Amino acid sequence: MPVDVSSYFRPDLLPIFAGDVISYKGTANALAADRQRTDSLWHKNEMPDAAGAAALGRRLKVQYVLMANVPDLEMAIVTAPSSKDILSPGVPTGETEAQESATAEAIGALVRVSDGAVLWNARTTATMTGGTRANETPAAARRRVAMDAVRFSLVQLERRFRQYRHRFE
Asked: pTM for the whole thing?
């Protein structure tokens, strides 16, 4: 799984023009030029480093910094009813099969660059469960389930940000 999952966080920023938004790649390049990583914008207690985000925003010449982080991803093996029971509910076999389960937590923040104020922050979680598909290795199944959990936690974060923005319409 990639360490940086910034590309999966794509909130709707309309009516802002795409040319007025600096992508995660541009931000990563600016951080790399200063020999920083994206996790340097977050404190150990999983709160945004507002001063660091404001400083980055000034270097990028923007008014706001919207950021997201996935600080926690937990994997487990759970038992679930056999696919035979799901396909034939009238004839339960009582069999169970092991499946991968992943829970991802995402946190997001919007920082105003002019004064470093945190205008919005939210925390979301998503849990995904799935088994190994045909022609898929167990490692690939774990990776798929983990990435799905990360994606869905970030989608939830996007929804929360949309709700925040709608308060001003």
From this structure: 0.81
